[in-house]
Design a protein that fits this description.
- It is globular and about 70 Å long.
- By secondary structure, it is mainly alpha-helical.
- The chain starts with a helix and ends with a helix.
- It has a single domain, classed as Sodium/glucose cotransporter (Up-down Bundle).
- The chain has 19 helices and no strands.
């Protein structure tokens, strides 16, 4: 780290923290904190979506996976873009007219408190797992900034930054900072991709280098295939992204915050267009570093992006980009923490006690939940820190989708038609299937993502509930 690296990094972090503090000046209640009072414009909606979705998995994690598998690393940002398109076209209006502030409350209102409570807990677990992936990505950035800093202090710094990102301004802070973060990320990732093409003399020499790596390793991996890890696994990763985005509180929160359907829809559509190119930049960087791995002492997949920044970007810009990557990671972790806080506050605390109904107390407990979630995530990250960043992200998305997607869809499009007992069974059994078939030894018995098993189970159970519900209504008539 040179002086100019440090200058660029510090100035960028100060600007981001100042924006967060500024956005918190008008937050007076938990409702303002969670949805911005439902008065935000399209830019802030897009900023809140991308500020959460485009983080460590889209940048550090994508470069890491591209280093190992090439083009298949695009599934996170490609799936995220597709998900935002579906969100804009199919879900914005339904979310807005539901009158609910959380996805879990949509399920709870339709199927009862038991289904709602189980959905709250299990969807929060899914979101929590993704926070772990963001903390692991933060370690990769901090390892470059402060290589002698231990893991525990680095995790603590990351968690404090995540808390500061949203703890003052809530969804408005996530949106405002997200807009700035997106501009900086385009400079970092698209700019990095262009630097790669300049260093190699174009795309063809880079591809020739990749073919050389493939040949040297016995053609075990096709770096130029979207299905390098196997069609079942990679398509499953894309589907898990789509379902995960549609069933994650943070993204629903962003569109609910829009002042009307049009603003929310424009924000989601902008996200759909702007997210995939960021992944493309990360892929170019990851593959370049794999081709030239012998030139970098101690290079590993996790540090492919940060090492590229240190070696191939001007120091001042490199400092800005490192800060941007840290903020990208921090923003996603913060947005997910805000989502869990909103679920816990609205769907559990308010159902159990009325002691925190007063606006200031309710706002305080929302902030306390964010801190508690981040502290626990730090502990778990220290225990599980050897795992790959994107593996946690994909597992998180799959769990969320299996828990809440089918119950939520039926609640929005087929209200009062499904027997609630079947929903309760689906909410419990489906994520268990994802977990059981997603970990050794059962995951070795299948060649596709365990999400498909969980979702198949959820679809069958929920459709049975729909059939039973129709039968009961027929008998009642």
């Amino acid at each position: 780290m040179t002086t100019w690296h440090i200058v660029g990094l510090v100035v960028t972090l100060v600007v981001i923290v100042a924006l967060s503090l500024y956005s918190g000046r008008k937050v007076k209640s938990a409702a303002d904190f969670a949805t911005g009072g439902g008065k935000t414009g399209a830019a802030i909606v897009a900023g809140a979506i991308m500020g959460t979705l485009v983080g460590g998995s889209s940048t550090v994690g994508t470069a890491e996976l591209a280093y190992n598998y090439g083009l298949s690393a695009w599934w996170f940002t490609l799936g995220g873009g597709i998900a935002c398109l579906i969100l804009a076209i199919g879900f914005v209006h339904k979310f807005k007219i539901s009158g609910q502030s959380t996805l879990v409350s949509i399920v709870s209102k339709e199927y009862g408190s038991t289904a709602g409570m189980l959905s709250s807990v299990l969807s929060s677990v899914g979101i929590f797992i993704n926070i772990i992936s963001q903390l692991l990505a933060a370690l990769a950035v901090i390892a470059v900034v402060a290589p002698r800093l231990g893991t525990i202090p680095a995790l603590a710094i990351s968690a404090v930054l995540m808390a500061m990102y949203v703890i003052f301004g809530g969804v408005k802070a996530a949106g405002l900072v997200g807009v700035v973060k997106l501009v900086l990320l385009y400079v970092a990732m698209i700019g990095g991709g262009l630097i790669v093409l300049h260093l190699t003399g174009g795309l063809t020499p880079l591809l020739d280098g990749i073919h050389g790596v493939e040949a040297a390793e016995g053609n075990k991996v096709n770096f130029l295939s979207l299905f390098a890890r196997g069609a079942g696994k990679d398509i499953g990763a894309g589907v898990s992204l789509i379902l995960g985005v549609l069933t994650t509180q943070s993204y629903a929160q962003a569109v609910i915050a829009g002042r009307n359907d049009k603003q929310s829809r424009i924000g989601a559509l902008a996200s759909a267009v702007l997210i995939p190119p960021i992944g493309a930049g990360g892929i170019l960087i990851g593959m370049y570093m794999r081709v030239h791995a012998a030139e970098y002492a101690g290079l590993g997949a996790k540090t492919a992006l940060t090492e590229f920044i240190m070696h191939h970007m001007p120091p001042l810009l490199g400092g800005v980009v490192l800060a941007t990557l840290l903020i990208a990671v921090v923003g996603t972790g913060a947005g997910l923490s805000l989502g869990i806080s909103t679920i816990l506050n609205n769907d559990i605390v308010k159902k159990v006690t009325r002691k925190f109904d007063e606006p200031k107390k309710n706002l305080l407990i929302s902030r306390v939940f964010i801190i508690a979630v981040l502290v626990l995530a730090c502990v778990m990250s220290e225990v599980l820190g050897h795992e790959a960043i994107l593996s946690f992200a994909f597992m998180s998305m799959g769990l969320r989708g299996s828990v809440i997607f089918m119950p939520m869809v039926l609640a929005l499009w087929a209200p009062r038609r499904v027997d609630s007992k079947f929903i309760i069974v689906s909410v419990v059994i489906s994520p268990l299937c994802v977990l059981l078939f997603g970990i050794p030894p059962l995951n070795g018995a299948i060649t596709f993502d365990s999400l498909f098993i969980g979702m198949a189970v959820s679809v069958v159970i929920c459709l049975l509930g729909l059939a039973v519900g129709k039968g009961k209504r027929a008998l009642g008539n």
